[in-house]
Amino acid sequence: MTSIINIIDNILRSSLAGAWYLMVYYGLNPKMSYDIIISGRYVEFLSSIYNIYYDLFSISIIISSIIYLFYYSLGISKKVTGQVVRYIISVILIISSYMIFHYILIISKYIFMYLWKGTDWYSIFNASKISGYSGLTLLFLNGSYFTGIVILAFSLVVRQAILIIMAFIMPVSPIFILFPGAEKYFTRIIKIVIELSLMPVLTILSLYLMRFFPADLPLQIGFIYASFILPGLIFRTISGFLRQASLFGMDASIMDYNYYSLIDYIEDRIPVDLNNVSGDEPFNDYMAGR
Question: For this UniProt entry, which segments traverse the membrane (predicted)?
Answer without folding.
Answer: 12-28, 49-72, 84-112, 133-155, 161-180, 192-213, 219-238
